[in-house]
Amino acid sequence: MAGMFTGCSDDDENGPNGGKPMVSYVRVTRPESSDSLLTKAGQGSMVAIIGQNLQGARQLWFNDQQAALNPTYITNTSIITRVPANIPGNITNKMKIIFSNGDSLIHDFVVDISEPLVSGMMSEYVNTGEVTTIVGDYFYEPLTVTFTGGVEGEIVSVEDDVIEVRVPEGAEPGPITVATNFGVTESDFWFRDNRNIIASFDGTTNGLWHGPDYIKSSDPAIPNINGKFIRVNRDLGAWAWFEMYVGPANSDVALETRNIPAAALANPGDYEIKFEILTLDPLTGAEVKMYMGPNMADERGTNYTWKPNVDTKGQWETVSIPFDDFYTANQKFAYNPEGYGVSFHFSGPLAVKANFAIDNMRVVPKTLD
């Protein structure tokens, strides 16, 4: 009994686990999910390390990346921290805690390093041999960018969230694929997206009220990216009414507006309107009225108003507008396989220098089918 009593007294004096640090488990920090135990976590995740005698923690490492420690979130039974977002150079799948007395504790823990996130391209139309910019996250070298057609682009520069790549010969319309050592991601968007074009400006212009005078096959200040384009260069006064592309449903605009798929009208939230724009002066303060429907002449006063705040500094960029907003503003016209009338015109309260070009207007799904 004396021996048993002495043992219990020593344990009480030294604390739980004989005073030695220990890690029991790692869990998420949300109170409602406190019973969710973790053996791995993604970069940047907040975690709670639960154990005993942890109050002396001074450093915490996941693989070879040090986590930030705040003394406020360190107690004898827990450490709350965020998994480092930086990519490790040496992957050990271990967590290491270093204490004030120099001792250390190692615990198995995997940092789930993210596969590439491909959000978009500055311009989805870029000529062969020119450099395009891909935006996203988790672009960890070494990496490759493969275009539809099976050809790889030359990597010009890489940051965690931006890749600059030279478009190779043989690149075809379709998704691009970014691959790193931690995963492979195919883009939802298409490079040189040729689906559901509703205004290419390359076809005939019979029956258009306005547009033929502004459709150009070339311009000394603007490079072509896909045939002809709308080119506007004029000063517009406040409330000036300027029509750049207007045609009724019985004109040749219907030859392309019929490309809107029925699925886009049934589920407009799944689609977006995209087009490329190049500005030589900031296009700010303008209001572009966009009508589409069966009766352009009588109904185009009801339209979607695009208020651009665009300054591409002489480079082509891709613009995206939620098709749901456009479709609702145009009073949800019924599907017609024969096409629709359109009216794209300026009218707004501010004067604007309209010096720009647009091309490749299309209605495309937000995600890959």
From TrEMBL:
SUPFAM superfamilies referenced in this protein's UniProt entry, alphabetically: E set domains
Source organism, top-level taxon: Bacteria
Database matches in InterPro entries: Ig-like_fold, Ig_E-set, SGBP_B_XBD
Annotated segments matching region Disordered: 1-22
Residue ranges of every copy of the Surface glycan-binding protein B xyloglucan binding domain listed in the record: 191-365
Single GO molecular function: polysaccharide binding
Protein name, entry field: Surface glycan-binding protein B xyloglucan binding domain-containing protein
Source organism of this protein record: Pontibacter korlensis
